[in-house]
User: Fold these one by one.
Assistant:
Number 1:
Amino acid sequence: MLSEAWIHDDRAERRGPGRASVAGIHDGVSRERVGDGPLTHVSDFARIPRRDWLGLADRFYARLDRTFASIDAHGWHRPTAYLGWRARDVLAHMTSAIPVNFREVLGRALAGQPGPPPEFDTFARNAREVARRRTSPIPDLLREFHQELDAILRIYREMSDGDWERPAWFFVGPVHVRTLFLAQFADNVFHERDLLLANRRWTGLDPEHAAPLVDWFLRELRPASFRPERARGLTAAMRYRLHGAAGGEWTMTVRDGACRIEPGGEGRVDVTLVADAETLVAAAQARAPAWVGRLARSLDWSRGPRRAEETVAAITGTTSLLWSVARRRIRVGGDRRIAARLNRSFWHFWERTAMTAKNIARG
């Protein structure tokens, strides 16, 4: 996740007692800055049943509606932290992502055909959908968003618990239907953050849904981005020590060409990453100051029009990580060589198009 140039050699951070425990979805957690007091609890995403995930989503989307209603005409044109887009572009993306990124693969999974579609989640395809809606009035975008959201949530409500665990396909490769729901949920949580940050009203993640979503991000989505061909012969352990509303401790183990991340902080590790959970996920998802996005948009021609969106994502993604490390909001300590090797063993956000193409080719 971080380039080797940003890693400090701090072997004192390799050890530390496990201070996180698995908690239920309604356990209270406090917001903290990095290093302030004990770590918050972890919610185990895999132990939350479908009906409770739907309840969490209902409460979040009710709040999202209030967020939409609070943004005035000027606010929809404010620049955001996401890929140089305005707030209205983020709304257009949230709307188009449902049919483009989720509905087709969900339908294929429920029909017993969990393989990849011919075209899927490339940056270019999403950008085309946003551009197509660039002149749509905000009320029309909101209406379309609610229609698409209601339709796909209805499918999740009406399916069985067995359907929830059916095999499916996403840009990271083979997954379960549950993963499609969680990916859409997590995307929209951070897109609400994009909208509120742009309008200077963001107050932080809600731990009720953020804690299990961060647990999912680390334990399922992160290992799915692992590149075993780049980790041949590598045996390593890394501790994630995260603070804030969705904090806790997790340990990543890479061995025999496989990656596994589990909650807990026991045992010796080679590398330790310390950060606020929100900061880590935002950096991993290429959130950067709005001016960086505008600069990236001015340079998106540099690798040709077909790779314009990847260029923007690469600029905002690397800048976000550099910015977070320079301000010590993300700290990586331990063995420099192993940390650098681990960094090269995962796909990055801005490589999503190549990752998707490779996974489609695999079938």
Number 2:
Amino acid sequence: MGWIGDTVDSIKSIQIRQLLTQAVSLGMIVTSALIIWKALMCITGSESPVVVVLSGSMEPGFKRGDILFLHMSKDPIRAGEIVVFNVDGREIPIVHRVIKVHERQDTGEVDVLTKGDNNYGDDRLLYAQGQQWLHQHHIMGRAVGFLPYVGWVTIIMTEKPIIKNEADLYRMKVSEIPCRSQP
């Protein structure tokens, strides 16, 4: 019985070690992803350096599920550029093309009007009530590259309730980590 008991104890300790090794490995993967995300935020100057196209409003150029890489450049925004913006009162950012740029002579600030490539009219109906133009603080970044279809993982996670709750918990933890703003 002593030999069997020792063998069982040995197997239990190996299983515990393997479990701890896997937990540490998973923790390192999650931490690495978090560090990469925060580094991208600081490098690109965008609060969200990677976004997923969630609708067909930018087809045929970008399809639902494409991932866009963003950069917040100091250069003036030009008509034809693709920007990602937040509208007051809306939770989800929008990816659309700039169709008009209006520079105010008195302040030099730039206002922009956007439109989805696959939409009939401009985005004024999407803006906050009474808002005619987007201002600089609405713009999250400009699209500088894309990866087709990879964003479907995110779409599936947000559409499946069980997976969505876990993803929301992770996002809350990520958003609490500060990033020093660029000069």
